[in-house]
Structures are given as C-alpha cells and as structure tokens.
Amino acid sequence: MKSKLLKSTNIIISFFLSLLGFSTACDIIRYEYGSPHADYILSGEVKSAKTGQPVPQIKVKAGYDSTFTDNSGRYVITYVGFLMEDSLHVQFIDTDGATNNEYMPLDTVAFYSDADFSGGDGHWFKGTAYQELDVLLKEKE
Predict the structure, then answer these.
(1) Contact 32/124 with Cβ under 8 angstroms?
(2) Tell me, what's the pLDDT at 69?
(3) Domain ranges within the chain, ordered by starting residue
(4) What pLDDT, on the 0 to 100 scale, is given for residue 32?
(5) With pLDDT > 70 as the criterion, what percentage of the chain qualifies?
(6) DSSP 3-state assignment of 138?
(7) Contact criterion met (CB below 8 Å) for 96 and 57
(8) β-strands 125-132, 117-118: how paired?
C-alpha cells in the first residue's frame, strides 16, 4: 500500500514539475545581462618639446592597454570598458633609453563628452568615442 501511494505521489509531483518547467521555458520576456560599456579610441602625435620633431617608440598606456608610437610619432589606442567620469588616464613613457634621446614621462587625462559618442545601441553599448590628443615631451636633463 505504501509503495503504491509513493509511486502515485512521485508521478503527480513529476507531472507538476514538468508543467512548471514548460511554462517558464516559453516566456518571451527578454532580459539583458552585462554592464554598460563603450569603445574609447584615442589617437594623436607625440613630439619633442625642444625640437618639435616626432618621437618614435614612446609607450602610451590608457587603462590596461598600451601601444607604442610609430616612426612618425603617431599612436592609436582603444580602451573598451566603462568610465565613471568619461575621462581616461593616459601615460606617455620613454622606454628605449637614450636611443632617440631620453624624455620625461607624462601623465595626462583625455576627456570625453556625450557629444563624442556615436553608434550606441540605446541599451548597454554607449557607442564609440574618438579623441585626438597630441603631446609634447620634455627631454631629461
């Protein structure tokens, strides 16, 4: 008797659980997961403050990413993420020593405004913002 009661109870519970599973699987409400982000593209030219000539091989760090200036002193770096105040801390560091003269490191900030963004999806992706930042580096004395 107990065995029959147990089997029938298991069947009833299984039936209701399967109904519950089907009813939630057919839900058409869509939820978004993730965090707000944008593509911050920073480019520019690094020149010597003394001569005005382009400086190659300067390390440019923005956030957790870095790049080097090319032979004409140009750089392009992309930071993908979310900036709380729409400003990006940027560092310019001479890492090659005396090869092309020695320059003092420079810390600066690139500011982005809402007008700089384009191509956002209206949800989590704010879009892409472009900023041009040219700098002059002082030589070490």
Answers:
(1) yes
(2) 95
(3) 37-137
(4) 53
(5) 87
(6) coil
(7) yes
(8) antiparallel
pLDDT of residue 52: 93
**pLDDT, tens digit, for every residue of 9-51?**
888 888 777 776 665 555 454 445 667 788 899 999 999 999 9
Residue 33 neighbours by CB distance under 10 Å: 5
Pick the CATH number of 37-137 from 2.60.40.1120, 2.60.40.10, 3.20.20.70, 3.30.1360.70: 2.60.40.1120
Instruction: State what percent of residues in the chain have pLDDT above 90.
Output: 43
**Alpha carbons 70 and 43: distance in angstroms, whole number:** 12
pLDDT attached to residue 14: 83
List of long-range contacts for 87-90, beta carbons under 8 Å, 24+ apart: 87/111, 87/112, 88/40, 88/42, 88/62, 88/63, 88/112, 88/131, 89/62, 89/63, 90/42, 90/60, 90/61, 90/62, 90/133
- Decide if 81 contacts 93 (C-beta within 8 A): no
- Look up tokens 């440019």; give the residue: 60
Strands 87-94 and 106-111: antiparallel
- The residues, ordered by sequence, that sit 6+ positions from 24 with a Cβ below 8 Å of its Cβ are none
